[in-house]
């Protein structure tokens, strides 16, 4: 099965006039697809925010790729407690972008709500 693609929210930046518009800074969160995994288009400056909306701890894995120095750095089964938030990144393309242009995430339960924030350069 194909991974479920997450929709990114673009951060408005420090001086955006858009803050005067209702809902302009709202972020999109999607339940983790525990069966197929998730992915998002690598943007070289992406922050991942995860909220555990469940009553038990669940885990998140973010898969790295070999960088030019032959290093990998998977974030493996990071435990997020009930009601807690976790923040990862920002993720750069080097070391995180898979060959198909995506970053891969796998949550252990749909109670993990994942948001991807594209940070301004």
The biggest beta sheet reads: 5 strands, mixed
C-alpha termini separation: 34 Å
- The chain-level structural class is mainly beta
Helix percentage = under 10%
Provide a descriptive summary of the structure in words.
The chain has strands at 4-5, 8-10, 29-31, 38-41, 46-52, 58-63, 75-80, 85-91, 102-107, 112-118. The strands form two sheets. A five-stranded mixed sheet has the order 1-4-9-6-7, with no helix packed on it. Strands 2, 3, 5, 8 and 10 form a five-stranded mixed sheet that branches. The protein has 121 residues and is an all-beta fold. It is globular, with a radius of gyration of 15 Å. It has a single domain (4-12, 27-118), classed as Sandwich (Jelly Rolls), CATH 2.60.120.
Name the descriptors.
121 residues; five-stranded mixed sheet; mainly beta; Jelly Rolls
Task: Indicate the topology.
Layout: E1 4-5, E2 8-10, E3 29-31, E4 38-41, E5 46-52, E6 58-63, E7 75-80, E8 85-91, E9 102-107, E10 112-118
Parallel strand pairs: 1-4, 2-10
Antiparallel strand pairs: 3-10, 4-9, 5-8, 5-10, 6-7, 6-9
Task: Please summarize what this structure is.
The chain has 121 residues and is mainly beta. It contains no helices and ten strands. 21% of the residues are buried.
């Amino acid at each position: 099965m194909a991974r479920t693609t997450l929709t990114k929210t673009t951060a408005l930046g420090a001086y955006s006039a858009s803050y005067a518009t209702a809902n302009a800074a709202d972020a999109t969160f999607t339940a983790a697809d525990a069966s197929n995994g998730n992915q998002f288009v690598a943007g070289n400056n992406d922050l991942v925010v995860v909220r555990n909306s469940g009553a038990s701890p669940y885990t998140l894995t973010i898969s790295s790729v070999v960088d030019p120095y032959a290093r990998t750095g998977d974030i493996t089964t990071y435990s997020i407690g009930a009601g807690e938030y976790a923040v990862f990144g920002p993720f750069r393309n080097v070391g995180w972008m898979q060959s198909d242009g995506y970053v891969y995430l796998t949550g252990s339960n749909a109670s993990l709500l994942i948001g991807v924030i594209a940070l301004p350069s």
